[in-house]
Amino acid sequence: MSHNSHTPIENASETGNEKNDRRLAHLAEILSHAAHLLPAQGPITTFVHHNPLHLFESKPFHEALLEADKIFGSQMYLSEERYHDELKAGRILFSDVREILESELGSGGREIVIGQSTRFDIQSSMLRNLPFAATEKEAQWFIANSKRLEKIIHPEVVANSRNLNLVLDLCIKGTKKVAAKTNSSSPARFREMMLEVTGQDPDLLVNDLLFRFSSAFLDQGFAIWDLPRRDSGFIEAFRSFAQSSRSLLGSWARNLPENLELLCSDNSSPLEMILASLEVIGVPEENWEEFLTQSLLAVRGWAGMIWQIEVRPDKVPHPIKPGNLAQFLAIRLLLDRLAMKKIIREFTFRKITSRNLKDELANLSGRSQARQDSTALGLEVFCVALDLGWEKLIPSFTHEDWARVVSEVDTFTQLDQRKIFHLAYEKYLYRQVLDSLVTHKPEKQSRAFSFQAVFCIDEREESLRRHLEEIDPSFETYGAAGFFNVPMYYKATLDSFYTPLCPIIITPSNWVQELPEDEFLKAYQTRASGMKTMQIASHKLHLGSRGGAVGAVLSASLGVLASIPLAMTVLFPRLTAKIRRYLTPFLRKKIETKLKLERFAEKAGPSGNQVGFSLNEMAAMGERFLRDTGLTRNFCRLVFIFGHGSTSINTPHQSAYDCGACGGSPGGANARALAQILNDKRVRSILQNNGIIIPDDTCFLGGLSNTSINHVSFFDRDLLPATHHEELEKARNSLREACMRNAHERCRRFQSAPLDISLEEAQRHVEGRAEDLAQPRPELGHATNAFCIVGRRERTRGIYLDRRAFLVSYDPTQDNSNHDILNRILNAAMPVCSGINLEFFFSQVDPTGWGCGTKLPHNPTSYLGVMDGAASDLRTGLPWQVVEIHEAVRLLFIIETTPEIMLKILNRCPPLANLCFNQWINLVVLDPDSPRASILKGREFVPYEFSGAPAPVARSSIEWYRGKRNHLGYPHISSLVHSGGNP
Is the pLDDT of residue 152 over 60? Predict the structure, then answer.
């Protein structure tokens, strides 16, 4: 296991009660630890990206992957085939592979192993040649089907097939003689052993029942009926279900109600029920941790969701009480017992009782035989032998020679090889962007800017900012985490409950409401009442349609009418959306709203005068935002603050496209709130006393950038003075053109969009994707993330970054001697951005293990997540359609500061130190006063060496990417395209 828990040693003098208490305490400790191995993914309605291996961040990255490989059984790197494909394509350079291997081996690489071949030679050969087999069966199949061995294995070898087959035979025999024997150990769970011996899988029986019940227990309003006794906990609800629904249990679980009654009549706690199952199954105490952990991980989707709702009940409208994870596990083990009894009974033709289940499992275990074979290892030795020219040496190999060779080949595992390839894969990419940054010469602005716009740091906004600056050089852009330092629980006018709008690591202390303006209050009340009536009617209609007679009548009478809008949406998605938007003003009167932002009560709360922030709280949030971004002087007359969100109708993972810094929700409300705060004259007065002077004619305007349809909208435009209307119209024209170009750049990554598409066609294409029921890729989200650059915009303005960079504004010249601003920025940006990156990393590396596979068979369930088909474990991670174009590389943080300052920050912040020193992210610092860069190696910075290849140059972004699908380099844009100019 990843974290060894101390196994208590029995004390001969302890009483029965003391022993029982000790064992229960030990179980509680194991369960607490196992819970942290479960997925930290919350409800899909507020999807927040996270590192699936967050518990391992205290360990070095590659060491943690080796450890996690043993626990989770999922892939940790890309496949060897993928790396070799990238090698052929030039995306990986073998010179980088050799350099990294040499660095990893150190002086040990020069040690002679056999003949003239060193350890470096052997491992380099293994990396150069793609393995032909990974398992024994694959190796045996390959040998049996290789009629022309010399052509398949080593085309350059001039030898006849007889000699090659003789060498192969010697390699396999020599390997078999010295190969280390594997230690056969009992599996963590008995499921694998039962499957091997009987051919039947107990999980198929247990999971079918457990998944269906778990979805009902955690349901957040998706189900037609509420689950009885849900508030009493998982065990009581399951007990009630088993008693009232015996016909749904299956013959294998017909005694389940009696078993539950017996346990519940003794008032057994969940831990006592778990202990009883462990004793019946016969799991020794030293194996409890591994057994129970694997029992939870076998259903980690539902188990993880139970744990997440226990930890963050504010993320769902219908929370559950603490302690349900232990109850879930108790029921899981009870079902395991019944399923195993059924399979053993059918296999042995004997009646099985709970008391001798342990003995029956022991008998089955004796039938399971661990077979030792070394064909695959021998084949790998053979490939190395041919590559290094050992054909003539092999017949004279002694036993010691074989032992050395086989040991060298065997200990350089596939994970070790993939690690080397992966480091070379990352190095190529990092070198490209760093070379572009260190050779970039920022141009001094010759005249004052006319507009300033703050966007979220999201890498999808990088291209929008770049196009906006190319079209209209009078725009100055900034990047900040999309909650804009306004953490809050937020409820819109027609919402039923509050939603947290802040990073997942923050629990808000304030509540904000959106309310209708006084003159629109009556219209709002009418609409709210009408919506409530329609929802009730819709719900009753939904229930009726599930019945026999009523369902038939409804289908016959309304089915044809209901099919018309559905067919329109499928066949003409964009046109249907335009018709809907056109008719909406006629069918629904527009209601102007305002934010209830200021609190008048002393204590914050969700209702009445407790809603909102105090004046001092608003001033503090506004000041921190301005100082963190460096926007403290030279204010323009119009300053835009754009949150971001995404709209689409065919993705359950909708919130994964929204703002991660807003807890998986759109950030428009935060942008609107911050603009309102900074427009407040009382706030400006406080800021002026603190050294930030905002001119009287400066107006802040909140807005929302829609990343799926590439459109920006504005809040509270009616509050903008008439003196600013002309400037707003000019800015809107530039923003509109930038959005169109951004849509054009996005379209190059969509296979359904032709490469010669025009700007207007591109805009129509992305709008259609978002409204298309048949479209599994409304947008690709964070699929291109690779870097996070923290510094002044002048260091990156004019560089094409291919939508791959999180851009965080930070001015090192405005920070204090304690570097508090950088410390605050990194404490937010590093966990959030690395969480996004690592979830994409692992979901791409193993799309079904860490990701949730293809979205085509997905069905939303319980308003919590998706499952495959009619019933499955809750699928965690990202669907393949989101990550398919992603390059699985760790995020490269590039920070404008000095090595000394960076080390001070890391040394006083352990979570950031874990991410950087343990290489969950890679770290580079850019000198604020020069183009020099330094890269973190171990725990110290070393100068980055420029490769000498000049960065490419392009006249514009469109000129660079036009006609290309794949990831591109990072050229310097030589000139800016003026507003209205054609690309």
Answer: no
pLDDT at res. 546: 57
Tokens representing 262? 């017996």
Q: What percent of the chain has pLDDT over 90?
A: 66
Looking at the structure, tell me whether residues 249 and 379 fall in a common domain: no
- What is the spatial distance between Cα 593 and Cα 676, in angstroms, rounded to a whole number? 13
Residue 584: what pLDDT?
Answer: 60
Q: Is the pLDDT of residue 603 over 60?
A: yes
Mean pLDDT of all residues in 853-876: 91
Give the number of other Cβ atoms within 10 Å of residue 561's Cβ.
8
Residues 297 and 262 in one domain: yes
Question: Are residues 335 and 351 part of one domain?
Answer: yes
Tell me the pLDDT tens digit for each residue of 23-33: 999 999 999 99
Residue 197 belongs to some domain of the structure: yes
More confident residue, 156 or 401: 401
Q: Domain tally for the chain?
A: 3
Instruction: For residue 121, tell me if it sits in a domain.
Output: yes
Query: Residue 514 — φ and ψ, nearest 5°?
Result: -100, 125
Tell me the two tokens of residue 371. Answer: 């077979």
pLDDT for 672 equals 97
Mean of the per-residue pLDDT values for the chain?
Answer: 88
Q: Is residue 54 part of a domain?
A: no
**Coil vs helix vs strand at 478:** strand
Same domain, 377 and 361: no
Domain span at residue 527 reads 522-587
Q: How many angstroms separate the CA atoms of 161 and 150, rounded?
A: 6
The Cα 50–Cα 589 span in angstroms is 41
**Tell me, what's the pLDDT at 773?**
84
Nearest-angstrom CA–CA distance, 784 and 433? 14
638: helix, strand or coil: strand
With the C-alpha atoms ordered 434, 437, 438, 440, is the resulting torsion angle positive or negative?
positive
**Residues 282 and 312 reside in one and the same domain:** yes
Band the pLDDT of 272: cuts 50, 70, 90: very high
Residue in 620, 643, 640 with CA at minimum distance from that of residue 698: 640
Inter-residue contact 728 to 720 (CB < 8 Å): yes
Highest mean pLDDT among 314-323, 591-600, 628-637: 628-637
Tokens of 582: 């056109």
Domain boundary, last residue among 554, 572, 587: 587
List 713's β-bridge partners, or say none: 704
Q: How far apart are CA 223 and CA 766, in angstroms?
A: 33
**Exposure of 218 by Cβ count < 10 A (0-12 exposed, 13-18 middle, 19+ buried)?**
buried
- Please tell me whether residues 150 and 88 are part of one structural domain: yes
Domain's final residue, options 587, 610, 641: 587
Residue 829 has pLDDT above 70, yes or no: yes
Closest Cα partner for 594 from 502, 719, 720? 719
Q: Could you tell me the two tokens for 210?
A: 């457990």
Q: For 829, which DSSP code?
A: H
Report how far residue 318's alpha carbon sits from residue 88's, in angstroms, rounded to the nearest whole number: 53
Residue 663: both structure tokens together: 């807890």
Does 255 share its domain with 381?
Answer: no
How many helices, marked H, and strands, marked E, lie in the chain?
A: 34, 21
pTM value?
0.90
Q: Do 281 and 402 sit in the same domain of this protein?
A: no
Using CA atoms, how far apart are residues 303 and 234, in angstroms rounded to an integer?
12
Find, among 894, 526, 562, 956, the residue nearest to 741 by Cα. Answer: 956
What's the rounded mean pLDDT across residues 680-694? Answer: 97
Examine residue 291 and state whether it is found in any structural domain, yes or no. yes
